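Limitations

Structures in this collection are predictions, not experimental determinations, and the ligand pose is part of the prediction. Treat each record accordingly. The example that follows, with zinc ion as the small molecule, is included so readers can see exactly what is and is not provided: the inputs are given verbatim, and the output is the predicted complex.
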Amino acid sequence: MILQTMVVGPLQTNCFLLGCEKERVAIIIDPGGNADDILKVIEKHELELKIIIATHAHFDHLGAVAKLMKESEAKLYVHKADWATLERAERSAASWGMRVEQPPVPDFEMEEGDEITAGTITLKVLHTPGHSPGGISLSMPGRVFAGDTLFYRSIGRTDFPGGDFDTLINSIKTKLFTLPDDTIVHTGHGPDTRIGDEKKHNPFID
Ligand SMILES: [Zn+2]
Ligand SMILES: [Zn+2]
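Predicted complex:
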């Protein structure tokens, strides 16, 4: 599998390209901005973009969605509990003084346990609310893409609309921390970490 991390948009969001080398198809997770750069990387790897997944609907994870969908046949996946937030993406960004092209209505909802597949790549959906009601993480053997739920030695903010601290901690403990300790955590911002390391060293979780 091709895996490339790109840091995109005004809030330095981690965007991930997952490419199936056999069928030359790609999944993009959290395209928060820099659509042209993302398109170039997809082209460089000679992949066809099939699926765009937002781990949640904050605008810093969606800024490039509109353009990517214009330039490809890709379908958009967002958990239903975040669709209302997605509808406000452009306005929400503007209130922070940032410009985001409004993404379209998603093609698919996601539920806990859903599997999203492109070529030989399969991602399993874990509903991990707390940072936002529709926050999800995406797991595959050895890795999890955790969005803004869990960071290196930190956790997501819970002071945005729909955020809740206890819900976030519960998501981390009952969903992410049941993954094997050596699972690599690809976070929404900042460096990767591992489940076992966060169990030991994360100061926000007892
Ligand atoms: Zn967020
Ligand atoms: Zn974010």
